[in-house]
C-alpha cells in the first residue's frame, strides 16, 4: 500500500483486466509481473522498457532482483549479476535470487551529436 500511495506502482490494463504491474523505487525495478494469460505477447518487455527509460532519466544504474528462470532475460538486456542470495524459509526450503545491475551510459550533448 505504501508503494501505491507513493505513486511507485505502474499497471498495464485493458477493458477487462489489470494484467501487468511494476514497482519502481529510485533506481530499482521491483515486482514486475504479467498475468499468465498475457505471457508471450511482449507485455513484460514493454514494462521493462518503460521502467528502464524512467530510471535512466534520473540515475546512472538500474538494479533488480532476479529469480533463476528470469536471469537469462536480464543478462540478454545487459544486466550483470552483482550479488547472490540464499535464504532459508520457515519450512526448510531455500529462496534463491540474484541482484542484477545495469549501468546507464549518459552521453554529453557533445557526444550525442
- What is the SS-derived class? alpha+beta
Rough outline:
globular
Major beta sheet summary: 6 strands, mixed
Count of folded domains: 1
Oligomer kind: single chain
In DSSP terms (H or I, runs of 4 or more residues), the helix count works out at 4
Number of strands: 6
CATH H-level homologous superfamily name: Gcn5-related N-acetyltransferase (GNAT)
What features would you describe in this structure?
The chain is of the alpha+beta class and 113 residues long. It has a single domain (2-112), classed as Gcn5-related N-acetyltransferase (GNAT) (Aminopeptidase, 3-Layer(aba) Sandwich), CATH 3.40.630.30. The chain has 4 helices and 6 strands; from the N terminus they run H-E-E-E-H-E-H-E-E-H. It has helices spanning 2-5, 43-56, 68-76, 109-112, and strands at 9-13, 18-25, 28-34, 61-66, 80-88, 94-103. It has a 6-stranded mixed β-sheet with strand order 1-2-3-4-6-5, covered by helices on one side. The longest helix has 14 residues, at 43-56. The N and C termini lie far apart (44 Å). The mean pLDDT is 92.
Summarize this structure briefly.
The protein has helices spanning 2-5, 43-56, 68-76, 109-112; strands at 9-13, 18-25, 28-34, 61-66, 80-88, 94-103.
Write the layout of secondary structure elements.
Layout lengths: L1 H4 L3 E5 L4 E8 L2 E7 L8 H14 L4 E6 L1 H9 L3 E9 L5 E10 L5 H4 L1
Parallel strand pairs: 3-4
Antiparallel strand pairs: 1-2, 2-3, 4-6, 5-6
Attribute tags:
113 residues; alpha+beta; Aminopeptidase; six-stranded mixed sheet; 6 strands; globular
Amino acid at each position: 500500500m505504501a508503494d501505491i500511495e507513493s505513486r511507485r506502482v505502474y499497471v498495464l490494463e485493458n477493458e477487462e483486466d489489470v494484467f501487468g504491474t511494476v514497482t519502481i523505487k529510485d533506481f530499482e525495478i521491483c515486482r514486475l509481473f504479467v498475468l499468465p494469460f498475457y505471457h508471450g505477447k511482449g507485455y513484460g518487455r514493454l514494462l521493462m522498457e518503460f521502467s528502464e527509460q524512467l530510471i535512466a532519466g534520473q540515475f546512472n544504474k538500474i538494479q533488480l532482483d532476479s529469480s533463476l528462470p528470469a536471469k537469462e532475460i536480464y543478462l540478454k538486456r545487459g544486466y550483470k549479476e552483482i550479488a547472490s542470495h540464499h535464504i532459508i524459509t520457515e519450512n526448510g526450503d531455500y529462496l534463491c535470487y540474484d541482484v542484477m545491475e545495469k549501468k546507464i551510459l549518459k552521453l554529453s550533448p557533445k557526444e550525442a551529436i
